[in-house]
Amino acid sequence: MPLYEYICQQCGKRFEVLQRMGATAEGLSCPSCGGADVNRALSTFAASVSSGGGSALPCGKPSSAGCGGGFS
Ligand SMILES: [Zn+2]
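Above are the sequence and the zinc ion SMILES. Below is the predicted complex in structure-token form.
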């Protein structure tokens, strides 16, 4: 389940919410001021998927490099 980051439009508070894929900001409220006017920011999950090209390992290295200690 992806972690989405939201930004409150009233107080600027950034907070993260675990939501189902494709869920919206509907029904969410700011944990700081209670405002319902929140916008979704790019989560780290979405950012890594969109920039990884689909073949990178979770550590960020190309799949041919592996996720080992990095010493050769
Ligand atoms: Zn707020």
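The pocket of zinc ion is lined by residues 8, 10-11, 13, 30, 32-33, 35 (CB under 6 Å).
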